Backbone:
């Protein structure tokens, strides 16, 4: 698979936006809640004055971080798909959260509008795989992190080899049809399968993080390594 085309990616998330959360929870059997909780657990070891949640989508990670972190922590969600951000803003309103410390901004992960050294923590969940240029994205993340700041990546990975046949049978044979039922968009979930199989494994992604300048790089497999939590730090 060639690099994701940003126009097609934006169109895909515009199309699935109204059903995005429901599809996530149903198609993962609800395990996505647990994956995000693991991310928040890691995020809790501060400092966390200013957090940037990239490719925030409908804001589930931003909301999970909000629940787990002190009220004064500023959480900024960024996504380049405006329609899906509307769903994040609705969640903010439903939870009566102040806009000042819970911003959702339209922006491109490949060209962030923030100054160098702005954030204590950057999170990106199921977003890195969708970037047209991962190297550029990682270098932007490094740039806007404060020295000593951390990057946490929650993303699909390559499962343990013995789990592969079951996983890819589900991903390519069953999931697109289920997804068509839930979202009406089978193509979007065919894209999901091919983007996952084209994504680097844990060791390869760790190497990409080191090449982007991150230190203390590690990867923690979750659910037979269907998903992995990677972290890296911008050295002081
Ligand atoms: C699978 S969703 C993940 C949403 C959310 N983080 C979650 O955990 O559910 C991927 C998101 O990445 C966004 N995205 C992809 N490329 C982007 C880019 N270059 N800049 C900003 N957002 C991007 C898409 O618009 C989409 O909302």
Residues:
């Amino acid at each position: 698979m060639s690099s994701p085309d940003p126009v097609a990616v934006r169109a895909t998330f515009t199309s699935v936006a109204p059903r995005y959360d429901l599809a996530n929870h149903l198609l993962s059997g609800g395990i996505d809640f647990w994956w995000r909780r693991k991310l928040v657990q890691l995020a809790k070891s501060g400092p966390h004055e200013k957090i940037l949640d990239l490719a925030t989508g409908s804001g589930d990670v931003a909301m999970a971080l909000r629940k787990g972190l002190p009220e004064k922590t500023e959480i900024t969600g960024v996504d380049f798909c405006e329609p899906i951000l509307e769903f994040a803003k609705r969640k903010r309103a439903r939870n009566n959260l102040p806009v000042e410390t819970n911003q959702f901004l339209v922006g491109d992960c490949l060209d962030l509008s923030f100054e160098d050294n702005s954030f204590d923590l950057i999170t990106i969940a199921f977003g890195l795989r969708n970037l047209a240029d991962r190297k550029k994205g990682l270098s932007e993340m490094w740039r806007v992190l404060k020295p000593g700041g951390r990057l946490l990546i929650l993303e699909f990975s390559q499962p343990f080899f013995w789990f592969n046949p079951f996983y890819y049978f589900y991903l390519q044979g069953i999931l697109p049809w289920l997804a068509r039922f839930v979202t009406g968009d089978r193509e979007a979930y065919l894209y999901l399968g091919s983007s996952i199989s084209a994504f680097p494994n844990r060791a390869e992604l760790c190497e990409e993080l080191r090449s982007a300048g991150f230190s203390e790089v590690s990867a923690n497999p979750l659910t037979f390594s269907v998903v992995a939590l990677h972290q890296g730090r911008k050295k002081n």
